[in-house]
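User: Okay, second chain of the day. Same drill as before: sequence in, structure tokens out.
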Amino acid sequence: MEKKLFVMSKIYDLSTKTVSEIKDAVQKDLDIYSGGGIRFELKEVSGRTLEITFERKYKDGEIDWLNYDPKMIYNVDTNIITGHGYNGFRIPVYWGGVPYGYPYFMPKKEFIRCYKESAVLLGIDKPKNVKVTVSEDRIVMEMKF
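Assistant: Same drill. Structure tokens below.
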């Protein structure tokens, strides 16, 4: 099994870097990207499953959690996962958006499709299964290879 991970605009190879080295590298990029407002965790749950967690806080009123649909994901979270917009990075298979920088949301299925197809175009095997869970304080993405 190929153990490569696409996160925060880069590909990380788990066969050449430790989980700790990857965590440190991603955290450094996230600190620059967010000014230190996001904490990154990476766990190898099994030989074929990775769990990626981004702990973050939104500004009051930024996200309407009372009307949030769990089948949707906000573009702010998709950008945190992929690094879209960080240092000019553009995800190869883009999910679209709205003009003028307004926050928006999309079906998680659409984001996962774009993520998987982009991973292949960036040179890694397509994950077999990707599950994304979003809450007020974190994003958790589980990937099975």
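The beta strands are 4-7, 10-13, 38-46, 49-56, 72-74, 105-107, 129-134, 138-144.

User: Thanks, on to the next one.
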